Amino acid sequence: MDSQFGITNVWVQGDFVTRAVAVILLAMSLASWIVILIKALDIVKFKKQARAARDFWHSEDFATGLAKLGSDNANPFRHLALEGREATAHHRNTKAHLHDTLDVSDWVTRCLRNCIDEFTARLQSGLAILASVGSTAPFIGLFGTVWGIYHALVAIGTSGQSTIDKVAGPIGEALIMTALGLAVAIPAVLGYNALVRGNKSILGGLNSFAHDLHAYFVTGARVTAAGEQAKVLPMKKGA
Questions:
Q1: How many other C-beta atoms can be found within 10 angstroms of the C-beta atom of residue 129?
Q2: pLDDT for 101-134, tens place per residue?
Q3: Cα→Cα distances 80→88, 187, 202, Å
Q4: Angle, alpha carbons 7-11-13 (nearest 5°)
Q5: What beta strand segments (E) does 101-220 contain?
Q6: What's the pTM?
Q7: Contact 213/84 with Cβ under 8 angstroms?
């Protein structure tokens, strides 16, 4: 064949539209991998913090348990514990606001839920990029292929040479755009599914921790499984 298959030939021989499609696919691929790597590292960190949160309930008091959660302000488990403590103290010491019509259980539930909702929004940030790339990249690649085939056929018709060696090269190079679209979309879809599963695992642990915190701040002891004893002592007044 006179033409050599490859992305280089597609770039060199392609027009403005073909090059624009290639640049768009490259940008989408970079954005996808950046999101996947950043969110994957976050999930690893949060899972490590979730394991540390299990030791919270094996502390002698709330202050000791809080120390076991570390000093990272981005730790959702630590932030949830602090939010619950502040909500309990605020409800106990404040009598001049409309929220005082709620009992302590409803007030703590509301504060913990707001905290979880904020973390959920932060945890899911970036997933829309993966969803968009996974759903649109194949069609962008297909558009590049259709455009490339059209121009290849026009060039072949103009030259009057329609032998297989003259047709296969330009058509094959145009089909590379479809392959590029799939190469961009597949990692985005797989990464999206993996991150969603990881997020569900973290949110499940956070909701369970919030449930135990709610019981602790309202009743003075966490909800324990059969045969398990809570080792965190009731929070002292003003703690």
A1: 17
A2: 667 788 888 888 999 999 999 888 889 999 999 9
A3: 12, 34, 13
A4: 110
A5: none
A6: 0.76
A7: yes
